[in-house]
């Protein structure tokens, strides 16, 4: 599980480099996000633009990450592909999260992941 961390002016962006968030990677996903968000400043935005499949285990992992955030931080989502957005809509979890069309700073970092501040592999 690889997650790049990129700091913008007001958010820590965690870009997930997985095509699937399902039962096979749910535990790794939570561990990787926990490591990547440690010491985050400002908002934490989970960039799921590369994820094209999510099942209930993946959704549960995202909700688990939301619950583990410190009280002063909030988890936001960005870049949901249609199939992933549909999972959030069907379960009404889209009412729990702020969802952005694109992650803050996505234009600058999408081309070269080597520019990321941190690269976490779990």
UniProtKB/TrEMBL annotation:
Belongs to the anti-sigma-factor antagonist family. GO terms for molecular function: anti-sigma factor antagonist activity. It comes from the Bacteria. SUPFAM superfamilies: SpoIIaa-like. It comes from Palleronia salina. InterPro entries: Anti-sigma_ant, STAS_dom, STAS_dom_sf. This is Anti-sigma factor antagonist. Residues 21-122 form the STAS domain. Transmembrane segments: none annotated.
């Amino acid at each position: 599980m690889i997650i790049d961390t990129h700091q913008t002016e007001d958010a820590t962006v965690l870009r997930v480099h997985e095509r699937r968030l399902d039962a096979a990677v749910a535990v790794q996903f939570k561990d990787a996000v926990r490591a990547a968000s440690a010491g985050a400043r400002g908002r934490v935005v989970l960039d799921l633009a590369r994820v094209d499949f999510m099942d209930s285990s993946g959704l549960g992992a995202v909700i688990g990450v939301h619950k583990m955030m410190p009280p002063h931080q909030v988890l936001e989502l960005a870049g949901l592909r249609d199939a992933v957005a549909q999972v959030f809509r069907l379960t009404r979890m889209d009412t729990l999260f702020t969802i952005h069309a694109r992650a803050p700073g996505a234009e600058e970092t999408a081309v070269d992941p080597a520019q990321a501040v941190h690269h976490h592999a779990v």
